[in-house]
Amino acid sequence: MTEQARWGVGSNQYKKRPPRPHGPQPSPGLLKSAAKDQTDELGFSWDSSGIPWDEMPGMEVPRALARFEAQLAGHVWDAAALEGNPYTLPEVQTLLEGVTVGGHRLDDEKQVLALVESTRLLHGLVRDGTFALSKPLSDRLHGIVAPHEAIEAGHFRGEGSVRGGGRVNLGEAGTFKATGCEDGGEELRAEYTRGLAFLSGVKNPIERAVAYFCFGTRHQFYFDGNKRTSRLMMNGVLLSSGHDAISIPFSRRLEFNQSLVTLYADADATSLMEFILDCRPEG
Question: What whole-number distance in Å separates Cα of residue 98 and Cα of residue 195?
Answer without folding.
Answer: 39
